[in-house]
Design brief:
Chain A is of the alpha+beta class. Chain A contains 5 helices and 15 strands. Chain B has one domain. Helices cover 50% and strands 9% of the residues of chain B.
């Protein structure tokens, strides 16, 4: 199937949301000299060795001021610093920004790997799950950004907290102007699952102020990640990407409502988490039939 | 009035407003009150209102839950709560005032103050998440979170949600036009009042 309107909207909203949170809230933590741990991943073929860090979802957006965007790793015990970032960059490896790990070509499982990177304070996920499943039924691993003494790699693929789950739930078209112009209204909800009240209030505050923001429409072909969750072109800059699509008909954040799960309701959850909701009403005026 | 003598025309202009205005005023008040009553009655007889007003032991009259459980428990209200009272109070506040009155003109112009949907959404918070409106949720969708939270509480707030089977929320919630449609309809009706 070729790319549809809803694909573009989802892609655009997720990229915008991530950038907005990182830039307005500086919602990242720079980590230095983080150790990586080798582990097996049966989803990958044997030509790669996996080295995982203790943190998921690294910042990959170069337009975030102050965030350390990793461009390789430092290998301690290999001849001539094969993966030394200052020498060869990412040669012979993929950086999996989503799962917080590197995939190194070859079979050597004894590299002593470290790296510097910024990790997002909130993992961002796109989901089609219902709020009741996300909040009341599922059990989560908390991938705290605070270093721990028993540090090890974080398992890949599983969704971990703190996290924000974005869902574009409904879309509706309404006649708007002569000539076939329609007003498309999209309802998008973000469920915020935070470790503490400070984090939660911060996110809700940032997005409560996002009313009247304009979001450029970015096709999925311009999504920064490849199949390994590494950057397609080695670098990603949201500001440059949005400038590239600045002439497109933008999405308009027409209304935002934020709310929090009450303490009483929170106490009945299986996870000890702080929950909030951001309800977006997003509009675009467009010619659906063209 | 071209055929009437000038002095008669002048007398009419002077006397007609004084004689006709009280009648118009009375007539408008009567029509306004009838329409307001009709609006409130329509709200009270809406299947969602009826179901919620029937409390935690109601059946799913509105059909929003596919006939399983009921909205009162699904949303997670306390057993002694009256969630629709706040909406009723706002609708009751619908009023009018005279505008642009002139002693020389015969007709009268009125401005009707009708609540908008957002005002109603502001006074209808979800019992488990203030800031979200259950009345808006009827129109846009409600997750089964309130039901689940209610169910997992040792003593269910609504008193009966814990007895409802799990597939309730799996069936999904069927959205239904509610407050926005009502206000829009009566905005037009009040505008056409003459």
């Amino acid at each position: 199937m070729i790319e549809q309107y809803h694909h573009k909207v989802t892609n655009s909203i997720i990229l915008w949301f991530d950038h907005y949170l990182l830039s307005k809230g500086q919602a990242y933590t720079n980590m230095t000299g983080v150790n990586f741990y080798n582990y097996d991943d049966d989803r990958l073929d044997s030509s790669y060795q996996v080295y995982g860090s203790p943190y998921k979802q690294w910042v990959c957006d170069s337009s975030i001021a102050g965030a350390t965007i990793p461009d390789g790793v430092i290998v301690g015990n290999t001849p001539s610093g094969q993966y030394n970032q200052s020498i060869t960059g990412r040669s012979g490896m993929f950086m999996d920004f989503e799962n917080g790990r590197v995939l190194v070509e070859g079979s050597n499982s004894n590299y002593d790997i470290t790296s510097n990177f910024a990790v997002k304070d909130f993992n961002i996920y796109f989901t089609n799950e219902t709020e009741d499943d996300l909040i009341a039924e599922r059990k989560y691993v908390v991938n705290s950004r605070l270093p721990r003494p028993d540090e090890s790699f974080i398992d890949p693929y599983d969704q971990v907290l703190p996290a924000i789950f974005i869902n574009t739930s409904t879309a509706q078209n309404k006649d708007f102007a002569f000539g076939g112009m329609e007003e498309t209204t999209i309802t998008s909800t973000a469920a915020v699952l935070a470790e503490d009240s400070y984090q939660l209030d911060g996110v809700l505050s940032i997005f409560a102020d996002s009313k009247n923001e304009c979001v450029p429409v970015i096709p999925m072909s311009d999504h920064p990640y490849n199949e390994f969750n590494d950057l397609k072109s080695g670098v990603f800059n949201y500001k440059e990407l949005s400038a590239k699509h600045s002439s497109s008909n933008k999405l308009f954040i027409n209304n935002v409502t934020t709310s929090k799960l009450t303490d009483r309701a929170r106490k009945s959850l299986t996870n000890d988490i702080f929950v909030g909701f951001i309800d977006f009403e997003i509009q675009q005026h467009r010619f659906r039939h063209q | 009035m071209a055929n009437l003598p000038l002095d008669v025309q002048q007398a009419l202009r002077k006397q007609a407003p004084r004689i006709l205005k009280p009648g118009l005023k009375k007539e408008f008040k009567k029509k306004f009150d009838e329409l307001k009553k009709e609006m409130i009655q329509e709200f009270l007889s809406h299947p969602v209102t009826v179901e919620i007003n029937a409390g935690p032991k109601s059946t799913n009259i509105s059909g929003t839950l596919g006939g399983k459980a009921n909205l009162f428990s699904f949303i997670g209200f306390n057993a002694n709560e009256n969630p629709t009272k706040a909406i009723l109070e706002i609708l009751e506040k619908t009023t009018y005032k005279e505008v642009g009155d002139s002693k020389r003109s015969i007709g009268k112009e009125y401005s009707v103050t009708l609540p908008n949907a957002n005002e109603i959404f502001a006074v209808t918070p979800m019992p488990w998440a203030t800031g979200r409106s259950w009345a808006k949720g009827i129109e846009t969708g409600i997750s089964g979170l309130g039901y689940l939270l209610n169910k997992s509480t040792a003593s269910s707030r609504s008193g009966v949600a814990i007895q409802t089977s799990k597939p309730v929320r799996r069936g999904g919630f069927k959205n239904m036009p509610y407050i926005t449609a009502l206000i829009k309809k009566y905005e037009k009706k009040f505008k056409d009042l003459s």
